[in-house]
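User: Teach me something about this protein's shape.
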Amino acid sequence: MRKMFLVLSLLVVASMVLTACGGGSTEPQTVVQTVIVEGTPQVVEVTVAPSEPEKEAVLRVNLGTYPDIIDPQKSSFVNEIAHLNKVYMGLTTLNEKLETVPGAAESWEFNDDATQLVFKLKPNLVYSDGSVLNAKRFEFAFQRNIDPATAGQYASITDEIVGAPEWRAADTSAADYDPEAYKAALGVKASHADGSECEGYEDTACDTLTLTFSKPAPYFATIAGIWVGYPAKEENIAEGGEIWWTSSKFQVGNGPFIWESVDPFVKSVFVPNPNFAGAGIPTYKLEFRYITDSAVAFEAYRNNEFDVIGSAAEDLPVIEADPDLSAQHVTYAGSCTIKIQFNLQPTWYDKPNPFTDKKVREAFALAFDAEGWTRDVDGNLSLPTWTWIPPGYPGYDPNSPLRFDPEAAKKALSEASEPFNSPEKLNALGLKLNFGDTPRNRQRSEWIVANYKNILGVDIALDPVDPTTATALQKDPNTFPLLSRGGWCADYPDPQNWLSVYWRSNTTFASRPGYANPEFDALVDEADQTVDPAKRMELYAKAQQVLLNDIPAAFGYNTLNHYLVKPWVKGYLTTPQDAGFPGDVTPWTITIDTSMIP
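Assistant: First, the predicted structure itself:
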């Protein structure tokens, strides 16, 4: 009998192991086995207790607003980039210290005067589907970014490339327009290592990309890593047409994740890319959801329906009163400056635009109570500022001519030109504050309106639209709101990104509100092509002072990254440029401890 018991026990253990390996069972199972008892086969039945089902490693993040567009050569907003950098990787990338490190390229080299930059790709690169990824793909990405037919939001960021501004400004409707001629003249060239011609997208020896600039561009190795250079497939774009980016089928990339599925405005699912050539392959599935009401997202988090959400000032009393939530609340430096944006175009919907008058802008800037905002609206989850480049970034300068000064604000308004020099005259114009309509955005907008009423006596109407529409309005100079809240988050740690990319008059971003100053343009143009680091920073500092004196917006506050993160989310490395969740810049370091999930 002892021998029978031993054999039977082993069989029971074996059946339980097999059940566990098969993914678990929720019901008791009866296993029929043949055992040998004293040399005689006998059939026995054994009841096996159910095993615990294995938990899947998933990072569930609420991203808030669904993106307006998710196209590498057209996108510009933070939530758009948060998708693209999961699916694609550029020639370079950033590490957890925000240093420029190899991405798809294993090395790069400038010539002596920084007018040429040569990248050598890592060997045997492939897309997530296993197809060849060569330098010709990156050549197409830069060409497409510059092509005026693309009409990309970031097209001007590559204007240093020979032939880029000329092609970008070309009239595509002209009878003699020849895109192939512009393309041939462009300083973007894929080749073999010996300089010979590539034979197309299947040419595995096509491993070199050369960028030639019209002026020194010592910062361009970093620009080559942002989304405008992501290698989306030309044939997928062609097949999907104008809205190719709406389908995960066409979003085949080389990033840390594969975009498995998307239900617009509801949910996106990303799975690890086994062919990722970066620092590591993620070990979890990533899910983005798009709940714009942060109160709803907070309750979902408390019900364990999310692993990460952005925290909100309105929830701080509950968070601080709960030891578990307090322990899960993560805050650290952010990368954004948020401002009260002024439309600077000569007219606004056929009405005189008061913000063309610098004294009106000065009044609104001095009347914005940035400290009150961070205290009363953000619950100290932001930092008041009167300057543009945030602390912690190269080029930060706290010496701004602006500050919160109600009496000076009233005086500035009284000194404005005749059509705008009193609250009554401004009220007659019917000023509006545009915003993406969520319950908490409405509260924030109501605070701004009340602040200006209290300080300046100006009546401003609320102008709510759905959040995705609000984004689209701000992208078009013809629809840019008279007043709105918006800002800029760093793409890379260099003042060139804050000043030249955003405020130079020929850029997409400055043209939206209509900012232009030749003195500023000249300073940043000189700084951009200055190789000497100290001289370069001195020129950027002068340019920023010109900008601050122009008061193109009321610079209001710098963001903090603030999230609620479940304790089973491990290994994340935070940076100021995280967008969506802690560790966003290096998501492969994150792990999910499924044993802790209830």
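Now, about its shape. DSSP finds 21 helices and 23 strands in the chain. The CA atoms of residues 271 and 390 lie 34 Å apart. If you'd like, I can walk through any region in more detail.
User: That's plenty for now, thanks!
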